[in-house]
Design brief:
This protein is of the alpha+beta class. It folds into two domains: 99 residues, no CATH class; 194 residues, no CATH class. Helix content is 35%, strand content 21%. It contains twelve helices and eleven strands. Strands 5, 6, 7, 8, 9, 10 and 11 form a seven-stranded antiparallel sheet that branches. Helix 5 runs antiparallel to helix 11 and helix 8 runs parallel beside helix 10. The longest helix has 17 residues. It is elongated, with a radius of gyration of 22 Å. The N and C termini lie far apart (47 Å). The relative contact order is 0.13.
């Protein structure tokens, strides 16, 4: 792995300054030159890449939560290019093997996470990724009667659909094989929703499982066929079998180390869920997303559907 300095030199970073103990960098960068991309370098060797209209102000915000900032690298970038350049740099640094504390745009975060303290220790996380037969079945389910009642009618509509039982069967297998500590993480870290959306191309989205800011599993029908789709960790799924359908579809939340597995019919879906590397790729992807924080879709969680999966 190249040094961080060599990696940033590829992007023509103009400035790197020692900031250990500094509460402000205003004297170091002129007011007219503060719009651009910055990289924070932490004492333990981790990094954080971000954009700022005013990097001096942004640094002050970071200092409130990160007391171990050693150095700061910076390059000027025009405001309309900030998002694109930030994304490119985050992806490049992560692929080069540097540990980033970013949450958005990365495949995994090295920032401290409440998940580690509240749900699953680092030791259990390592076991979860290593042993495909192990599952944390501890804890009790949460209950939200108002939310349950909100989606009860929609669940009644779903359960009458032609492939409802097939969907539940495959989803139950997925939840127990691929969701970390499903009882402890229900609703707040993962949620199952019933969009029941009919699209112009005759696709009917039956259900989704969402973690953090994206869907990780979807079931839908089209022209009398039932389809399944998973977002998984690309690097873990390396050398997938030729029969497995893969597509380079991703969400920013999950980062660049992400790929989509598609399956047509229950037989193929079961075949995917029986494949050790596919399950490992799902497990790693879901765990990484949970470490980034709770799901943003908890308000759509259908408890009546979860009953079918967890009891």
């Amino acid at each position: 792995m190249s040094s961080i300095a060599a990696e940033l030199a590829k992007f023509e970073f103009e400035t790197t300054v020692d900031v250990a103990g500094l509460s402000s960098i205003a004297p170091l960068i002129q007011p007219s030159e503060r719009c651009g991309i910055y990289v924070l370098h932490f004492a333990n060797g981790e990094h954080y890449a971000g954009l700022a209209i005013n990097v001096a102000r942004r640094y002050g915000q970071h200092r409130k939560t990160h007391l171990d900032i050693d150095r700061l690298s910076f390059k000027q970038v025009a405001p309309h290019k900030l998002r694109a350049v930030e994304k490119t740099i985050i992806t490049s640094l992560e692929k080069a093997g540097f540990h980033l504390r970013n949450i958005e745009g990365t495949s995994r975060t090295y920032a401290p996470s409440p998940f580690d303290d509240e749900i699953m220790t680092h030791e259990d996380q390592a076991l979860w990724e290593r042993d495909m037969q192990w599952q944390d079945v501890s804890g009790e389910r949460v209950e939200d009667d108002a939310l349950r009642q909100q989606y009860r009618r929609r669940f009644g509509t779903f359960i009458a659909l032609p492939y409802a039982e097939v969907a539940i069967s495959v989803l139950r297998a997925y939840v127990w094989a691929c969701i970390p500590a499903p009882l402890l993480t229900e609703k707040y870290y993962w949620s199952c929703s019933l969009p029941l959306e009919r699209r112009p191309d005759n696709v009917l989205v039956y259900l989704r499982v969402n973690i953090n800011g994206q869907e990780v599993f979807t079931i839908y029908t089209q022209h009398g066929e039932v389809y399944f789709g998973w977002h998984v960790t690309k690097s873990v799924l390396a050398n997938a079998p030729r029969w497995m359908y893969l597509e380079n579809h991703m969400y920013q939340t999950g980062g660049s180390d992400q790929i989509y597995i598609g399956a047509t019919g229950m037989y193929t879906a079961r075949r995917v869920l029986a494949h050790p590397r596919a399950v490992a790729a799902m497990r790693t992807f879901n765990l990484r997303l949970m470490r980034k924080g709770p799901t943003r879709f908890y308000r759509y969680h259908v408890f009546d559907l979860a009953d079918k999966l967890l009891t």
